Amino acid sequence: MVVTEIGCMGVKPSLNIIDETTKEGQVLTGAWKAVISAPGGPHQVYWGLEVEDPSKLWAFFDWDSIEDHEKFAKSSGGEAVKELPTILTHGEFTKHVAVTPSPPLVLQAPVTEIMLAYFSSDISQVQKDAAFANVKEFSENGLNKCSDVKGFSFGWGVENDFPVRGGDEGQTGSVLAAFIGWTSIDAHMEFRETEAFKDNVGLLRRMDGVVKLAMFHVSCQSLKKT
User: Is the pTM value of this prediction over 0.85?
Assistant: First the structure.
């Protein structure tokens, strides 16, 4: 099953890791270049700071399967990213999502909205299907009405123990993830004032069993295996 690895890491204070002219920026880009060029590495990597909290670095990796990721982690992965602890404080989590369409090229938009809808770890397949249908309907009736939307990928997390953003300490659950590409954050905020959004946002907020909704933005750089 084709999957996208999703990970969140903490950035050490006062470092500009996105600027390749800095030492720390060279460390980060060098790590991703090593990952993408190593045998068995991912097809593509995307990374960017969270706009709402720049102390968080988000990274996404396209794999043919979780097994391929696990094999890489045991073989070349550690060596490829060995310098990252010099610029990062910790890894918050690493999980996988299976989104449609895949790979999520929407992450190459000028800015990508990341929406994470959390559910209980034991959510039923019936509830999963219903929530999936709601997000699809929101896309068709809401997002498709907006010319500033540059792409949309969504799907369920493979694992059922995603840390719940803004939840209680140690709280985990299943997640339905959506990646929405925008021309700008301002364009996204303007869309939220439209009838297309207001008439359809209830499809997301009233999903059966939803525990919490989280949303933030990233502007990603990317590298593709050649």
Answer: yes
